[in-house]
Design a protein that fits this description.
Layout lengths: L1 E11 L4 E5 L5 H4 L6 E8 L5 E8 L12 E10 L6 E12 L2 E5 L5 E4 L7 E2 L5 E9 L6 H14 L12 H11 L13 E10 L9 E10 L2
Helix pairs in contact: 2-3
C-alpha cells in the first residue's frame, strides 16, 4: 500500500530550490500519521556537489516519533533537459527499531544507526548522510488570509486563463490585504511540530541521466 506521494518541480543541479506542501488530508492519508507527508524540500549545496532532501511527516503534532511500519522513499529523476528521458535513482529509509534507521542509496550507498543527533549519521564514504527527528514545522501558512483571498478572488470574478490573470490596481491591493488577513500575516503552523527525515546525497549518485533533477517522495506500508 502506498499512502502518499508528493512532488516538487524539476530543478537545475547547479543551483535551485524546490518545495511542495500538503498539510491537511482526508482519513486515508492521516490514518497512519508517520506516513502522512506534509512537506518535501529539495535543494543543492552552494558548490552543487550535494543534493539535500527533506521529507516531513505527521503534521500538526499528529505523532512525536517515527514508527517501524513505514518505508520512506526519495525518488530523484535526472535528465539532460526538461521533458527528456530520465534516469531514476532512489534513497530508501526504514526504521527497524525505535530510533534506529537504515537507508539505502544508489551505487550501494548505505547508512545505519541512530539518526537523531544534529549531525546525523553518515555512510563510510560520506556520500550519504541522514538525520531524523522531531522538529518545529518550518512551513509558513496564513490559513485565515488564504481563505479570505480565495473568497476575494471569487468575488472579483478573476478566472484562470492558462497564465497568471491580470487584475487592476485596486483589485490587486484588495487581494493582498485579504491574503494577510488585513494586517501582518501570521503563521497558522506556529508552535506545531513535524517529524523530519533529512538526507544529503552526493550528486554523483543521482545525476547519471543529466543535470536536470525532478524529485518526489512516497511513503509505503511495510510488508
Amino acid at each position: 500500500m502506498r499512502w502518499k506521494t508528493l512532488w516538487v518541480s524539476a530543478l537545475a543541479l547547479a543551483a535551485g530550490t524546490a518545495v511542495a506542501a500538503d498539510h491537511i488530508d482526508g482519513p486515508t492519508a492521516t490514518a497512519e500519521p508517520t506516513a502522512d507527508i506534509a512537506d518535501l524540500y529539495a535543494w543543492t549545496s552552494a558548490d552543487a556537489s550535494k543534493l539535500n532532501l527533506i521529507m516531513t511527516v505527521a503534521p500538526l503534532d499528529s505523532a512525536t516519533s517515527f514508527g517501524t511500519a513505514v518505508t520512506y522513499v526519495f525518488h530523484v529523476n535526472s535528465s539532460a533537459g526538461y521533458g527528456e528521458a530520465a534516469t531514476s535513482a532512489q534513497v530508501i529509509c526504514e526504521f527497524y527499531d525505535e530510533g534506529m534507521i537504515e537507508c539505502w542509496g544508489p551505487s550501494g550507498a548505505y547508512v545505519e544507526g541512530d539518526p537523531s543527533a544534529s549531525a546525523g549519521i553518515s555512510s563510510a564514504d560520506g556520500k550519504l548522510k541522514v538525520f531524523a527527528g522531531l522538529r518545529n514545522d518550518p512551513f509558513f501558512m496564513e490559513f485565515t488570509g488564504f481563505g479570505n483571498a480565495v473568497s476575494a478572488v471569487i468575488a472579483a470574478g478573476v478566472t484562470p486563463n492558462g497564465t497568471c490573470p491580470a487584475v487592476d490596481g485596486p483589485t490587486s491591493a484588495a487581494l493582498v490585504d485579504a491574503l494577510t488577513a488585513g494586517g501582518a500575516a501570521t503563521d497558522s503552523f506556529a508552535g506545531t511540530n513535524v517529524l523530519g527525515l533529512v538526507v544529503q546525497v552526493d550528486k554523483s549518485l543521482v545525476n547519471t541521466g543529466g543535470p536536470i533533477l525532478g524529485v518526489h517522495a512516497t511513503t509505503h506500508a511495510k510488508n
